[in-house]
Design a protein that fits this description.
The complex is a heterodimer of chains A (114) and B (114).
Chain A (H helix, E strand, L loop, with lengths): L4 E3 L2 E4 L5 E6 L6 E7 L6 E7 L2 E5 L6 E5 L5 E5 L8 E8 L9 E2 L3 E5 L1
Parallel strand pairs in A: 2-11
Antiparallel strand pairs in A: 1-3, 3-8, 4-5, 4-9, 5-6, 7-8, 9-10, 9-11
Chain B lengths: L3 E2 L4 E5 L4 E7 L6 E7 L6 E7 L4 E4 L2 E6 L4 E6 L8 E8 L9 E2 L3 E6 L1
Parallel strand pairs in B: 2-11
Antiparallel strand pairs in B: 1-3, 3-8, 4-5, 4-9, 6-7, 7-8, 9-10, 9-11
The chains are: A mainly beta (114), B mainly beta (114).
């Protein structure tokens, strides 16, 4: 059973650019949630995907968008990058309907926007 | 609007003694609370949880206490070990929301001194 993996590990972009982050969910999990963790803060919920459909969204603007694929892997896309988008982006996977404490987090992608 | 707060950014405890990490919340709709532990370069890992219908849950060296009237929970680690040094996040969930989203506190960095 493989865990949650994310790519890339680190990324540097400039303001105004677009970025795509990737997440492979744990085997058997059909739900992926994305979180943004700014420096010195706790993770903040961006959105969740369940069976390829968005299933809840946090307080993030539309330039944050996502996809989930038939194999339940997921992408987070951010357009028109701003300096404040610099953060650790975490994805978490679990099976829909299971207890919330069975979310497993990946190691994150560190995004730096210059 | 910080619905989950961890007011101590850091805590230093002697090995073998008790570590107590605190967390306050404001949303009375939260019905499930979790503690996560995070090492550098890794994603948060689930530690222990408690339902709002309970006031205590114990798992080995870890005990979580919930005081609903005060909207306060705490994590006790006894005895503290050097490997417990990490950042600890308190998180809460409202199961009536469609998405199983977690609302995190800012984290407390625990350092266990030998």
């Amino acid at each position: 059973e493989t865990g949650v993996t994310q790519s890339p590990t680190h990324l540097i972009k400039t303001r105004g650019q677009q970025v795509t982050l990737r997440c492979s969910s744990q085997s058997g999990h059909n739900t992926v949630s994305w979180y943004q963790q700014a420096l010195g803060q706790g993770p903040q919920f961006i959105f969740q995907y369940y069976r390829e459909e968005e299933n809840g969204r946090g307080n993030f603007p539309p330039r944050f968008s996502g996809l989930q694929f038939p194999n339940y892997s997921s992408e987070l896309n951010v357009n028109a990058l701003e300096l404040d988008d610099s953060a650790l982006y975490l994805c978490a996977s679990h099976s829909g309907g299971t207890s919330i404490n069975e979310q497993f987090f990946g190691p994150g992608t560190r995004l730096t926007v210059l | 609007d910080q619905q989950v707060k961890q007011n101590s950014p850091s805590l230093s405890v002697q090995e073998g003694r008790i570590s107590i990490l605190n967390c306050d919340y404001t949303n009375s709709m939260f019905d499930y609370f979790l503690w996560y532990k995070k090492y550098p370069a890794e994603g948060p890992t689930f530690l222990i949880s408690i339902s709002s219908i309970k006031d205590k849950n114990e798992d080995g060296r870890f005990t979580v206490f919930l005081n609903k009237s005060a909207k306060h929970l705490s994590l006790h680690i006894v005895p503290s070990q050097p490997g417990d040094s990490a950042v600890y996040f308190c998180a809460a969930s409202d199961s009536l929301q469609g998405a199983q989203k977690l609302v995190f506190g800012q984290g407390t960095r625990l350092t266990i001194n030998p």
